[in-house]
Amino acid sequence: MTPVLEVSDLRTHFFTRAGVVKAVDGVSFEVGRGEVVGLVGESGSGKSVTGFSLLGLIDPPGRIVGGSVKFRGEELVGQPPRALRRIRGAKIAMVFQDPMMTLNPVLTIGRQMALAVTAHERMSRRAADARSAEVLARVGIPEARARLAAYPHEMSGGMRQRVAIAIALLHGADVIIADEPTTALDVSIQAQILAEVGELVKGSGTALIWISHDLATVSAIASRVLVMYAGRIVEEGPVGAVLSDPRHPYTAGLVASLPAMSEPGEPLAQIRGSAVSLLDLPEGCAFRPRCDRATAACAAEPALRPDGARAVRCIHPVGVAA
User: Fold this and answer.
1) CB-based contacts of 135, cutoff 8 Å, min separation 6
2) What is the pLDDT averaged over residues 52-77?
3) Residue 116 falls within a domain, yes or no?
4) Which residues constitute the domain of residue 23?
5) Which residue windows are transmembrane per the record (predicted)?
6) Is 23 within the bounds of a domain?
7) Model pTM?
């Protein structure tokens, strides 16, 4: 499969008074046409900053300090703002976590969608409205034409999130980055949106990067998963294989903490300790202070070691005697 997006050794650091925060520290992966890749990890693992970095949406004191992001062979890192604006929304679109923070409360849905259309194409307002209504209908919004006159506050959370997804679909983007778009929604609405997005990706061939802390959600939509911890990918592979047979102790801890893995009435399993501070990372493996399998050898920096279709960044992977 020819990759649509190629990310190589991406590094995004934030230069604060307290020190340098290595939010993304050497991340590499590829996404092919029509592929859904899940990016998972705890809060602060660097997954959202990775998504923002792909589009150059990093504000000071942060900046991309190294690595490469290639879209259809074109390097994006270091491109001037004008060149990136040509790609954002039209070729690579993003769906943010909270639609109430991304939709303008004083503009109608139709007006906001028309602005998104005309930012990249010359088109009459009537034609823009027609395309907007068509895309709203595709994401499951009833009476789509009438909804163009509504304001964001007049719609439910699920409907607002559908609008945000519809805006990302307006130009037939080759890649969509979805940053925890269903986190604030109830389970039934979440399931509907997952099903609709899955069908849209299959029908259009769009590549999708689904960022989430919810393994169950990722397992329902992704074919491949990347597990992040402390700014690095610690495990990757087919979603079914990774979640059923995790190799990295951190991934194993995430899977074990799922409610479905515990009997009713039993305490939920949890990873001991807290996520490490990116300002004060330990030597070697960043997960070492929380890992039950850690030895003195873990003070050395582990590499991401390929293993067939999978890879794991661990000296003592699960299933192998420490």
Assistant:
1) 113, 166, 169, 170
2) 95
3) no
4) 3-91+220-312
5) none
6) yes
7) 0.90
